[in-house]
């Protein structure tokens, strides 16, 4: 069993109601990226949920499994060896503490910088050459998928050129981050009959344009539905990717796509391993609604800002804060 460094008492980690069988997201949109109907299906899913499951993505299964295997091997190391890869400020290994503002969760993780299609040379973690090779293989593949998804979003919205969104992530100097999360079994709660689970990663939205997640077969991811705020559990699928709309994409579409609030509930019996690619623009990129999406007389819902300005504001906030609230514009009658 993996034990987290300086593990606090379980009551120091926020507890959530354990998922019930009926909580599963039965209506989750599933999009085949290789299908001709993918652009419209993706746009519809982003408007309704800000989230969808992606199949037919083309990322080789062996690349996903290789990275998962190397991640499991890394997190199984002695704690003192893992600690040498930290702290995760700005990049490296972290345990329990998420950011600098007091958020905690039942997890350990690697936060990594990406340049173009591979780990940044300025990011020495992890030091293992085999692990780095697995990361670079997967990052190169998933980055291509992110560009294809953004192009499909543009096509589904009727935006020309279709590269209007993907170019922001593909551009030189784009701000990309990769994260590998490990949620050990929270055995302290098993069998206590509390009806509660430990928070693995607290509720939040992602600030970038989009994120693409892949996990092992252990469930735990939950999203909040836009219409009523109900939390629903996302069934795990080791072969699929799960796509989240981020705050920046919400602004670029003037609210047509809405970023999805999500969280992870730690499992009491099984480890969960997830790897997430976050696609963001360059620091100087202006984030404002695309003119093609503003109808006649329609105003922007947001104040103009750059990705650098929003990123700084986001990382000064707590996970559950409504980060976009500070950038909403009061509309004139």
TrEMBL record:
It catalyses: gibberellin A1 + 2-oxoglutarate + O2 = gibberellin A8 + succinate + CO2. GO terms for molecular function: gibberellin 2-beta-dioxygenase activity; metal ion binding. The keyword Transmembrane helix does not apply. Signal peptide: none annotated. Keywords: Dioxygenase, Iron, Metal-binding, Oxidoreductase. Residues 173-281 form the Fe2OG dioxygenase domain. Its EC number is 1.14.11.13. The keyword DNA repair does not apply. InterPro entries: DIOX_N, IPNS-like_FE2OG_OXY, IPNS-like_sf, Iron_ascorbate_oxido_reductase, Oxoglu/Fe-dep_dioxygenase_dom. It is an enzyme of class 1 (oxidoreductase). Its cofactor is L-ascorbate. Pfam families: 2OG-FeII_Oxy, DIOX_N. Belongs to the iron/ascorbate-dependent oxidoreductase family. GA2OX subfamily. This is gibberellin 2beta-dioxygenase. The lineage of its organism: Eukaryota, Viridiplantae, Streptophyta, Embryophyta, Tracheophyta.
């Amino acid at each position: 069993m993996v034990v987290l460094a300086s593990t606090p008492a379980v009551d120091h980690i926020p507890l959530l109601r354990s998922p019930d069988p009926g909580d599963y997201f039965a209506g989750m949109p599933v999009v085949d990226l290789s299908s001709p109907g993918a652009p419209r299906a993706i746009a519809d899913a982003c408007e309704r949920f800000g989230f969808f499951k992606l199949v037919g993505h083309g990322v080789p299964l062996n690349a996903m499994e290789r990275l998962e295997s190397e991640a499991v091997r890394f997190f199984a190391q002695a704690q003192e060896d893992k600690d040498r890869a930290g702290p995760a400020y700005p990049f490296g290994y972290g345990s329990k503490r998420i950011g600098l503002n007091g958020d905690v969760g039942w997890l350990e993780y690697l936060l990594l910088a990406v340049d173009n299609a591979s780990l940044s040379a300025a990011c020495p973690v992890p030091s293992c050459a085999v692990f780095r090779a697995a990361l670079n293989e997967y990052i190169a593949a998933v980055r291509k998928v992110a560009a294809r998804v953004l192009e499909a979003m543009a096509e589904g919205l009727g935006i020309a050129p279709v590269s209007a969104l993907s170019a922001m992530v593909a551009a030189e100097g784009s701000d990309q981050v990769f994260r590998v999360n490990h949620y050990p079994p929270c055995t302290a709660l098993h069998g206590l009959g509390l009806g509660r689970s430990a928070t693995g990663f607290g509720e939040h939205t992602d600030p970038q344009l989009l994120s693409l997640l892949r996990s092992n077969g252990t469930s735990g991811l939950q999203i909040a539905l836009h219409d009523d705020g109900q939390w629903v559990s996302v069934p795990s699928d080791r072969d699929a990717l799960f796509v989240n709309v981020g705050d920046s994409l919400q602004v670029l579409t003037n609210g047509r796509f809405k970023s999805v609030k999500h969280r992870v509930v730690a499992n009491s019996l099984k480890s969960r391993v997830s790897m997430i690619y976050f696609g963001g623009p360059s620091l100087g990129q202006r984030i404002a609604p695309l003119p093609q999406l503003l109808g006649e007389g329609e105003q922007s819902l947001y104040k103009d800002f750059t990705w650098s300005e929003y990123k700084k504001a986001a990382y000064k906030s707590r996970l559950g804060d409504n980060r976009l609230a500070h950038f909403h514009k009061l509309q004139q009658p």
